[in-house]
Amino acid sequence: MNQPIVLIKIGGSLITDKNKPFTINETALEIIASEVKKTVDTGKLLIIGHGAGSFAHVPAKKYQTHQGILNDQSYRGIAEVADVAIRLNRIIISKLLDKKVNAVSVSPLSSMVANNHELNEIFIRPLELLLQHNLLPVVYGDQILDEKTGCTIFSTEKVLAYVGLALKKKGYKVEQIIQCGLTNGVYDADGHTIPEINPVNFKDYQQSLGGSSGTDVTGGMLHKVKETLALAKQGIPGLIIDGIVHGTLSDAISGKTVQGTRIVA
Fold first, then answer.
1. What is the pTM of this model?
2. How far lies 152's CA from each of 93, 111, 144, in Å?
3. Boundaries of domain holding 44
4. Closest CA to 199 of 241, 176, 230
5. Mind listing the pLDDT tens digit for each residue in 75-129?
6. Least C-beta-crowded within 10 Å: which of 35, 115, 157, 243?
7. C-beta of residue 54 within 8 angstroms of C-beta of residue 71
8. 190-221 pLDDT, tens digit each
């Protein structure tokens, strides 16, 4: 429990082509997997979470399951979104296993229940045991059942936030959350990297934070920053970096200075 844990979010727009349904960005996935392998070999405790990209966002948009059960087709939507989400997860797990990383899938659908689109219950014990056995838990944005609306979707940011806070509540030290995307952090209106976002300056940059290119039901960059800022207020700071540049992720995990945007309270 004394060893710090780092949460890593791998953007769906990084590892897939969001404009081409069910398409993997093989180069990006190879780089990310290699960076994870490099870090795991140092003994650092990680929890990986990845976005849905051009996989689960497609049926999620079709059936609008992030809004709840709307009609009879919503039940088909729940099944399809859950299926496609875990299909992408298996691709990522397979790549990590190829790199000799002992990665294990953890299904949010099977371990979390929502109430009105927010967490109601979480079963964290299996993930704890994975960490204790030096296995790498890999979660993902997923379809979640909801006590009030029937269903909802938890973005990867939400899933990792709930996991991090649940572990923190049990006494674990959650060091930070690092988000890997397509850009060197968050850009301002002039296209420059914002070095730090905090509760005071967030309103100054909010207008320049766009949504997401391609099909995305979870809100893109603005959602990412809001969720990370909310987590920072609860003691888990964030860092948003470019996930493709070789060495950036492993350097960031080790505490070295890298280009990106820090999200602090």
1. 0.92
2. 24, 14, 5
3. 5-263
4. 230
5. 999 999 999 999 999 999 999 999 999 999 999 999 999 999 999 999 999 999 9
6. 115
7. no
8. 989 999 999 999 999 888 886 555 445 555 78
